[in-house]
Amino acid sequence: MSSFKEIATKDSCFRAGSTLCPGCMESVAFQNIGRVTDNGVKTIFTIGTSCAEVSTLAFPNVVAWGRGDESSDDFGKSFSILHNVFESAPTLAEATRDVADALTDCGALDRPVQIISTGGDGGAFAIGLRTLLHTIHRRARVTIVILVNEIFANTGFQYSPATMPYADTSTTPAEGAPGNMNPPLDYIHLAIAAGAGMVAQLSPAHGKMFVKAVERSLEVEGTAVIFVPAPCISGWKFEDGQTVELALLGARSGVFPAFMWERGKGGSVKDCSLEASERPDVVDFLAMQRRFAHLVQRDKVTGEVKPKPGREQDIENLKGWVQSNVERMYSLANLK
Amino acid sequence: MSTIGIEHGPTTHVATPGGERYDILKLERVKQAHIPFYPEQEGVTADGNTAAAIATLQMWRALIYPGFPITPSTKWIETVAAKVGAQKGTKKRVKLLEAEHAVADYMVGAGAACRDLIFSTATSSVGLDHMTETTRSLGASGLGNVMIINVYRATANFPLCIEGDPSDAMAHRDDGFIQICARGKQQIYDTVLQAPCLGMHPEIMTPTMPGYYGIKDSHRNARFIVEADTAVHEFQDRWLQPCHLPGTINGDTAMGNCVTSRHFQGFKINQKRRIERVLDILPQIGADFEKTFGRPGLRFFDETAWPEAGPVDIAVVGMGPDYGTFESVREAWAKKNDVSVSGLALRLLNPFPRDAYREKLQRAKVVLVVNQAHHSGRGHLTLDVADALAGIEPQPRIVSAFAGMGGADVSEATWEAMLDEAKDALTTAPRQPYMVFHEGARL
Q1: Hey, are the CB atoms on A98 and B249 less than 8 Å from each other?
Q2: B310 and B247 in one domain?
Q3: What domains, with CATH codes, occur in chain A?
Q4: A94 touches chain B (CB under 8 A)
Q5: ipTM higher than threshold 0.85
Q6: Which residue ranges does the record assign to the Thiamine pyrophosphate enzyme TPP-binding domain (chain A) (predicted)?
């Protein structure tokens, strides 16, 4: 394991010039993953159609990928990225792994490769749930990174199966309606049940934990899955500069607790108490985002956040969901 | 370009139009790892699916066989799995995916990972439909090392039937694959062997879709020659050189990018230009195959009873095994009716070799085109033939027929009924834009 400081000085394969929104957590995640993978091993990314694809892989405009300003003579520094349709990234990664292994088995390739699949929660949990679960089920030796912004951000902020209750999306509008009423898919449990070797829910807001998890994911047997809570500045509608703060608050308040789990070892919930009284109030998390503007309001004088009149019960319901979410995560941590 | 990599340390690389390419793969090791399935040439009696499976197994560049069952159209993946499983020490692997869509996605990942290996699978009907989102990506991808063997079967599941007509192949003509129709087990085997040479040609780089009729060819046995693996390798090695573009493993590259409109337009034009090159390269590969193995190689079509020169009264255009029934009735019917009858059995479906058809068919007074797939108009082949004949004076009359729909046998009586209509067209215009024939009668 490398130290956090050491990793911070590595050469990321995610380069400047992407057109991701300023404040997008995806670019922060890529920057960190890119540094962790600067470890002397050839890196191959696969990517499904998503914000991350259309904003970083734009030819002849900026292709924000590659290690170094020019290709290195050192194969261990080389980098490739492959995009195909929305749901395909895990299968592409699995295929790449298989080809590398088959070539190695023949003696035709004597250098290792590391393979990372990336995509959004829309691609992974809606149109791509099949491919996600089956690649995990086949124990493909790849790391799957899913950037969970709880919406189909790339196509106009529509509901995704990861959308949290009461969120205002373009297909679960909150105007005259409550917003989303479907509880999110239990994707962490699904990944464990499908046979993942490692499952984490971490964002770069937990910097050290995040890079350690990415580094560990490259070593574990079977498929490693990292769900990255990814506050979306355009879809969640928060203020500039609040991305990391929002990601931390969301994790600590219990909306998406930091979680690390390995098969055979079990796991743990990090930085999020089981007791609601010991966690930040989820209302503070809601108040930072205009996608919950129908639920809460901030007093302009006192700064106090309160439920909007008539929404008190909705807030209580939401708090109930958060508590059940935290309890579920603690239960999952006990699985071996 | 060498395939010999160095053992350790920094490796050299070269810039290509697609990125940087590292000389890291030792492909000769893959070839050395191949254990022959047929050390010698051998006569084999088997069905079409087995013939296709044997051909794919014999290729040293084929290391991984992704697949998903499509019952009962083809047991290609089951056959491959059985033969790979039975071969001790083989490095070949069977990859079972969860759906046809996943197979197609897998082929993108695998084909891009190493552009020098061949990745084949087989499917049919709704299986091919399920792949469609990605087959259309593959068609544009430049991954000529991908081959989807298509066992022809109607795509409709409402109602469901297992019989084979080429509706699926026709529905997927715009996927961007090179589509080649084979009839008979020998032609199936030979076509599958040649297809990657065409698809991976540096001027073409387009995936291939060899196909044959479901049930009639896929499930019925016949005797055919299987060449020794070494002979197959020698033939393919003449045509297959290490890809000049990098793959994701041996390259520093990005593939499948999001591009601006201007570049997308250029990309699509390039895609079309590459598939057009098939019309030049395919005859060369076919001729080399014939010279090597003594059997006809890839062609635009098989010819029946064309005189060296001069006109013919009726020219028949068809495809698939039912064309053989025409061949069997042709001579007697022509003699009885005192007309000359020739024929073309389609081999290259996509890109359609328009000029080659034009050159042949302009000698005919009447062209009888037999369509076997559902089409909302006059028939897929009819429209292609009409296009090929456009502007010719005098214009041969086109008799458009639908027969064998739903996989029905095109019986001798049905062929004779169609030929009777073609004969009438020698003197009068066809009575309808198209006619439907079934069980010996015009409906």
Answers
A1: no
A2: no
A3: 4-333 (3.40.50.970)
A4: yes
A5: yes
A6: 113-226
User: Are B247 and B392 in the same domain?
Assistant: no
Best of B121, B253, B259, B262 to disrupt the A interface (most A CBs within 10 Å) is: B253
Q: Tell me the chain B residues in contact with residue A51 when contact means C-beta distances shorter than 8 Å.
A: none
Which residues are within 8 A (CB) of B200 and not within 5 positions of it... i.e. 6 or more apart? B115, B118, B144, B145, B239, B240, B243
A99 touches chain B (CB under 8 A): yes
How far off is chain B from A142, nearest CA to CA, in Å? 13
Q: Give the pLDDT of chain B (443 residues) as one tens digit per residue.
A: 333 333 444 567 788 777 899 999 999 999 999 999 999 999 999 999 999 999 999 999 999 999 999 988 999 999 999 999 999 999 999 999 999 999 999 999 999 999 999 999 999 999 999 999 999 999 999 999 999 999 999 887 788 888 889 999 999 999 999 999 999 999 999 999 999 999 999 999 999 999 999 999 999 999 999 999 999 999 999 999 999 999 999 999 999 988 888 888 988 999 999 999 999 999 999 999 999 999 999 999 999 999 999 999 999 999 999 999 999 999 999 999 999 999 999 999 999 999 999 999 999 999 999 999 999 999 999 999 999 999 999 999 999 999 999 999 999 999 999 999 999 999 999 989 999 999 999 99
Instruction: Indicate yes or no: CB of B110 within 8 angstroms of CB of A95.
Output: yes
Alpha-carbon separation of residue A205 from A33, A143, A167 (angstroms) = 13, 20, 22
Residues 6 or more apart whose Cβ sits within 8 Å of residue B394: none
Integer Cα distance of A204 and A202 in angstroms:
7
Distance between B178 CA and the closest CA of chain A, angstroms:
21
Domain that holds residue B363: 301-442
Residues 99 through 128 of chain B touching chain A, CB cutoff 8 Å = 99, 101-102, 105-110, 112-114, 117
Rounded Cα–Cα distance for residues B362 and B359 (Å) = 6
Q: Is A46 on the interface with B (CB under 8 A)?
A: yes
Tell me the torsion sign for CA atoms B240, B245, B249, B250: positive
Domain shared by B289 and B409, yes or no? no
Q: Exposed, middle or buried, A124 (CB in 10 Å: 0-12/13-18/19+)? A: buried
What interhelical angle do B278-293 and B261-276 show, nearest 10?
30
Q: What is the CATH number of the domain that holds B339?
A: 3.40.50.920
Does A155 touch chain B if contact means CB atoms closer than 8 Å? no
Our count of domains for chain B comes to 2
A17 CB within 8 Å of a chain B CB: no
B327 and B200 both lie in a single domain: no
For residue A48, the cross-strand partners are A84
- CB–CB contact B248 A81 (8 Å): yes
